[in-house]
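Morning run. Coffee first, then this:
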Amino acid sequence: MDHDKIRKAHWDAVSTTVFCEICADQKEKGNRPTAFLSPEGYKILGIEFARRTGKTYSRPQFKNKWDSTKSLYQAWVYYRTKATGLGWDPVKQTITASKEQWDELIKANKLIAGFKRGPPDNLEMMDQMFEDAHVDDRAVSSSTQIVQDIEDIMKEVVDCGALEGSVEHYMATKLFSKLENRAFFHTMKTAEGRLRWLKMQYEDRKRN
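And here it is:
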């Protein structure tokens, strides 16, 4: 490849759709034997992508786009089917959550900000691209594991008496984005002690 043709990859909506269309087609033709396209699949991807978009990208650039697309798809599958405490709008075909939940989720995983509006673009083609890829807690990113940890500890917060809407529950949403605060909370073994600690944290925050 000529050096003057090598440039930083720019992925707008059109080029992303073309990328997904070609990758899905190569998957159907048997050129994704493992988790990635085969050498033949990447070769055809480069040729077809250049023909349809006028852009010439390298294999590492396509591989980076494949990985980022897969991360987005895995996040959608996880939050759509496995995450607890979230709702579903059948009309808009998207995940529903309170503003506080969205703030916490997006803080932990910026990929999912777009899910507030609906599913990711090119979802059907992603289904084809990543079909047979097992998506579970080990497949999602470390940030998704953080979200799961927060979901778990917020259940414990409610169990100790800090109901949603209370100042103690609000305080927990501020504290538990940090691992050390979650660790401190778990050192307390009684519901009363945990609730008292959250109240003290709130009072300290008000004074300061």
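The longest strand covers residues 87-89. Good start to the day.
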